[in-house]
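Quick one:
INPUT:
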């Protein structure tokens, strides 16, 4: 446990890794798979219902006064990241299989994290209020923008070899039914249950995380039945780790440079860096289960799972370094240098 704390490895990520290991050894059988799919569908709906009940619409409205900050963060999340994902297609098929590249492209389309973006901004003594609004707005918009971006990429034949990933009309209905409708119902129910949700947020996070663990177990159970570990080699996983490190470092540098060029102060620049470089596993995994139904979901979500852990470790180190530096030094150094 001391090693886990020292490395700042998120316990949720450890739970996901354990779930992958269990699914690899004890996958759900084909006979139980339809029942598990029904359970997962209900869990995803519950997850997005809680997202809706938790987010106050006023947060997005209050954030309009910092429109330059939020516009820059959203531009990195939903414009620059996808463009980088498209550019990375040069790695297919020599370094990434079609399914792994689909996963890499998909991770660039998902919204930013909420909890860790805010936590790291606070640790680094940045603009926490701005981080709360931007991260919340990213997830709010991501419910709609991520599926639309996936549909756009599929129509351009960028997802899978030869456009093998197709988003049908039925899939769009499923997206609305499983993601958007529960989210909107949660927003409508917020006046009635919002206070209760906030009061029990500590307990409800286990409902959130339990839902995602179920998605991971179902996806990797199916993957094991289809031979996922024969389709992905150790060196490909190692390459995903290296690629994730490069992506995080480059994006941290770019967000810092852009914030500096646009004249943002230290606190806002920190918010841009930690909100504009993160990708949400909590939102991305459930969406992938819906968007890529009938596809090798276990392989497609693998790059997002790797990226999530890498971003946590690098950003936790960076936030700690920022927090220990004088404000003047933090305002002039995009990435802290070792002392």
């Amino acid at each position: 446990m001391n090693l886990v704390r020292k490395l700042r490895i998120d316990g949720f990520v450890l739970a996901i890794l354990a779930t992958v290991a269990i699914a690899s050894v004890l996958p759900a059988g084909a006979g139980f798979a339809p029942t598990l799919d029904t359970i997962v569908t209900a869990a995803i709906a519950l997850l997005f219902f809680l997202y809706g009940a938790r987010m106050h619409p006023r947060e997005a409205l209050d954030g309009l006064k910092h429109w330059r900050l939020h516009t820059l963060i959203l531009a990195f999340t939903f414009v620059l990241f996808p463009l980088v994902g498209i550019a990375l297609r040069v790695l297919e098929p020599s370094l990434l299989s079609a399914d792994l590249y689909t996963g890499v492209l998909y991770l660039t389309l998902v919204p930013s994290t909420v909890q860790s973006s805010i936590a790291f901004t606070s640790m680094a003594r940045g603009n926490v209020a701005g981080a709360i609004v931007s991260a919340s707005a990213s997830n709010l918009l991501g419910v709609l923008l991520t599926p639309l971006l996936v549909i756009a990429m599929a129509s351009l034949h960028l997802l899978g070899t030869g456009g093998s990933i197709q988003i049908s009309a039925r899939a769009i209905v499923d997206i609305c039914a499983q993601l958007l409708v529960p989210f909107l119902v949660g927003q409508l129910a917020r006046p009635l249950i919002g206070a209760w949700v906030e009061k029990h947020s500590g307990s409800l996070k286990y409902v959130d995380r339990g839902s995602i663990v179920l998605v991971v177990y179902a996806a990797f159970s199916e993957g094991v039945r289809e031979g996922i570990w024969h389709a992905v080699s150790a060196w490909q996983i190692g390459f995903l780790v290296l690629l994730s490190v490069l992506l995080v470092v480059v994006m941290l540098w770019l967000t810092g440079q852009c914030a500096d060029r646009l004249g943002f102060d230290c606190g806002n620049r920190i918010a841009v860096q930690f909100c504009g470089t993160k990708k949400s596993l909590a939102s991305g995994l459930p969406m992938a289960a819906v968007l890529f139904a009938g596809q090798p979901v276990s392989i497609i979500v693998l790059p997002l799972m790797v990226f999530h852990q890498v971003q946590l470790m690098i950003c936790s180190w960076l936030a700690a370094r920022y927090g220990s530096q004088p404000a003047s030094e933090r305002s002039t150094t995009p990435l802290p240098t070792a002392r």
